[in-house]
Amino acid sequence: MMNTQQTVVNVLPQRITYEVRDLLSRWREFYAPPNNVDVEKTSLTTHELDELIDKVHDLFREVKEVDAVDLLDKVIKVQLQLHSFQQMNRNLKYEELVSLDYDINILTKIVLRHDDKLDPAQYIPQKHPILLALNSELAEKLAEQLVFFDVYSKIITDKQDFIAHSHQFIHSAIIIDIDFDGEGQGLALMKSHQANVPKIFITHKESVSIESRLSACHVGGSGFYVRPTVAQLLRSVEQFYSSPSLKPYKVLIMDDSHSQALFCEHALNRVGMVTYIVTEPLTILDAMELFEPEIIIMDMYMPGCTGTELASVIRQQVAYLRLPILFLSGEGNKDIQLNAMKLGGDDFLTKPVAPKHLVSIVQTRCERGRVLNDLIIRDSLTGLFNHTHILDKLKQACRHAKEHNEDLCFAMVDIDLFKKVNDSYGHTVGDKVISTLSLFLKQRLRGSHSIGRYGGEEFAVVFPNTEEDEALFVMNEIREAFNQLEHSSEQGEFKVSFSCGICRFTGENEEHIIEQADEALYKAKHRGRNNIQCFQF
Known about the structure:
Rossmann fold; alpha/beta; phosphoprotein; 19 strands; 21 helices; diguanylate cyclase activity; globular; 5-stranded parallel beta sheet; nucleotidyltransferase; transferase; GGDEF_dom
């Protein structure tokens, strides 16, 4: 008996298949099933909802034209769900997102081709692929190395293959030879490719003209490499492939007027920010310690104190010197407003304020705050937490594990024979090896882990809610994969290994966990390097 779903596939135009795949791919940017993320996302922003509604509307028109009844019913069901979510004006429930996820996946199963597997996640990856339009030898070598970084790539063979794949999937970046599929054809192909994705150009020629470089810029090139190494290309795509942080901005609202506080909360929640309302000024420090806000919106006049007095108290805490404070008040006197900013405020908005204006100011301040904070707490070479901050993260993790009776492990990682790398290939190559390992750790470890550069070629990893056996297994997988990576130098390619020491938190060894992990690391070095040891109590 003929499969009815497969019959539908045979008569559907290819453009509908592309529309459905594009919808699922975009949906995967906004939501992933809980087993694929560390923190379940329980809402969609207004922008995300609007974009999904537009895509489903386009799909509806296409499907209606071909009179595919079964598919049309499924599209309408998704469309109704999205419109109902739009009307709710609240955070979505977890089960609502799961229901929508299920219905969108049903759409993809209906348009499966004969050679597709049954699970849409198998042919539409959670992360968008990087397209490699290169000569076969370099493409295969790069694709092989990208696997170690958990980066999905697709090798493109010719112009028609590129067109097919660029329509089939949203891609995160393109690496293309300027002479791909013919002299100058790579540049010509990118000129006709309208998708707004990063394009990285390469050439195998000894030199390249300024005209070629300008042409690459004109078609949106974000990088240009002459006879690049695999390591160079790996580093060039990392910033485009790594998923942007989905962590919402955290806003503390300090206002004795509950209605005004709710107005701010509603405006900010609609764009995906997380808020915490405080109506009693004397409780603000406790609330800040609990909530850890990225910005405070504060009224000027409250029972018991003014906003400027409260801001002064906040600024007395060293940890909050950089925390943006936005005054929101009906005070119209410019001198008083300027004085408020002099005494600790960063911005002053006068009530009533338009929701869009409020959102714009908060987003700008939070974004700048994250950038500045990263400059302070991160290592300039690797982008990992610096020595001081990784120790702070470890202390916080120990305190949390003790309070909640959870498992915790701490790992120290050291590149083997690193002095020999510097002596043989130079310090510039040594820095690239350090950068590669840091990138490797970031790609391989989930977001809840804290990773830092402890010093030199030594790294530290905090494993919250992780048993010793699990930490050992994860680090051993990373060690084995990293040992297969090829690093490039003028003298040729070479491989590097690392050793690792792991110590579990017992609830009592907070003051000694670093030296205990270091002792385990020393034991790994003593046993021949390129292995992992756990501290024995």
